[in-house]
Amino acid sequence: MDGAPSRVLHIRKLPGEVTETEVIALGLPFGKVTNILMLKGKNQAFLELATEEAAITMVNYYSAVTPHLRNQPIYIQYSNHKELKTDNTLNQRAQAVLQAVTAVQATNAPISGTTVSESAVTPAQSPVLRIIIDNMYYPVTLDVLHQIFSKFGAVLKIITFTKNNQFQALLQYGDPVNAQQAKLALDGQNIYNACCTLRIDFSKLVNLNVKYNNDKSRDYTRPDLPSGDGQPALDPAIAAAFAKETSLLGLPVAAVPGALSPLAIPNAAAAAAAAAAGRVGMPGVSAGGNTVLLVSNLNEEMVTPQSLFTLFGVYGDVQRVKILYNKKDSALIQMADGNQSQLAMSHLNGQKMYGKIIRVTLSKHQTVQLPREGLDDQGLTKDFGNSPLHRFKKPGSKNFQNIFPPSATLHLSNIPPSVAEEDLRTLFANTGGTVKAFKFFKITRWHFFRCQQ
């Protein structure tokens, strides 16, 4: 974007049918829009912001993220004009639209000095969407969300987190109209075939406060933000307002119309965005990842190949486990495919095992080598390739639909009819855990525990 900074911006390559409102909406996230001049015959427009600083922020943002209007890329640069002088008699429609949008913008403006502002506007007018991912077989990254939702307008901020054992996100547009279009198009759709279902509603929040730019949150208008020390805590003000919200999101996915409809976004494109973040792979699409994971910071006094098989087996079929002979707080774990290794890494990295926070990354190794025949490796390597305990061998298994982050609640199945509640309580108490709650379904022989270790 050439030229000296100016609060007047020159916008080119506009679609022929674009409206003044859509052009104004491009500038609203960055500050007050004070004037507009549409040159429809040339598919161009001039947009004036209240300050040069706001214009610079807008140009910097759209230098990194190509703006689109009506699915067509447009181009923004500084104008040679330092202010925009228009003949209001010839530009009456544009000025009327600008006045109307400015009035709405003033109504929605954040309260000074607050992190999150509640507004008198109805939820349908909020530019912030509340998103829950159901049936999350594949990890959904911040970059995947940005790619999908950017099709409906400029995404300003995203915060992702896990609440009630569900992956959730708050996503802010610059214009409530974009949020409404995204909700109408995406609610109930699947990111990938038959999984990762989007459940979307409007938030009561009108502004998000993002403290860090990392893999959990991002403010796309503030590339200068620090990365922080890891996953940021959800802002207390956001959490309080979020907890008050009740909406369609409380319905089971089966009750959401179109829940089984494939999302009208190419799976390969979404997977590519996820792969770029090093997080997810799709069948038939290279995830740029490995089937072998390196797990470090293990409790070497407690960990065994069997315990690692059990833990990582929740997220995929573990083929081989090797605890390193010269570094017994680290291990290599080979999964059945790259999707499963990405899934295990996403859910288990940073979790606690035997009192230590483990780290899970992709290994440089392509396979886990078994010890040479006759060599005693002290039981540090084990081949689980033919284990009857693999959960994901059967195509279409319900296990694919029941993958969640670690939690204090356990689901037990296949329990013999002779086993009573007290037997199970004793069994888990003997492992060092405290059973806080218990629910026994005698008809299905399923049990739910809530334990505290």
Explain how this protein is built.
The chain is an alpha+beta fold and 453 residues long. Helices cover 23% and strands 24% of the residues. It contains ten helices and 22 strands. Strand 10 and strand 11 form a beta hairpin. Helix 4 crosses helix 7.
Question: Spans with pLDDT under 50 lasting ≥5 residues?
Answer: 105-124, 230-288
Q: Which class of secondary structure composition applies to the elements?
A: alpha+beta
**Overall outline:** elongated
Our measurement of the CA-to-CA distance between the termini, rounded to an integer number of angstroms, reads: 57 Å
Strand order of the largest sheet: 10-11-7-9-8-12
Oligomeric form:
single chain
Please report which band the strand proportion falls in: under 5%, 5-15%, 15-25%, 25-35%, 35-45% or over 45%.
Answer: 15-25%
Helix percent band: 10-25%
What is the gyration radius calculated from CA atoms?
A: 26 Å
Helices, by number, come to: 10
- What would the average pLDDT be, to the nearest integer? 76
Strand elements, count:
22
Biggest sheet statistics: 6 strands, antiparallel
What can be said about this structure in brief?
The chain is of the alpha+beta class. The protein is 23% helix and 24% strand.
List the helices and strands and how they pair.
Blueprint: E1 8-12, H1 20-27, E2 33-39, E3 44-49, H2 52-64, E4 68-69, E5 72-73, E6 75-78, H3 92-108, E7 128-134, H4 142-149, E8 155-163, E9 166-173, H5 176-186, E10 190-192, E11 195-202, E12 217-219, H6 236-244, H7 267-276, E13 292-296, H8 305-312, E14 318-323, E15 331-335, H9 338-348, E16 352-353, E17 356-357, E18 359-362, E19 381-383, E20 409-412, H10 421-429, E21 434-441, E22 446-452
Antiparallel strand pairs: 1-3, 1-6, 2-3, 4-5, 7-9, 7-11, 8-9, 8-12, 10-11, 13-15, 13-18, 14-15, 14-19, 16-17, 20-22, 21-22
Helix pairs in contact: 4-7
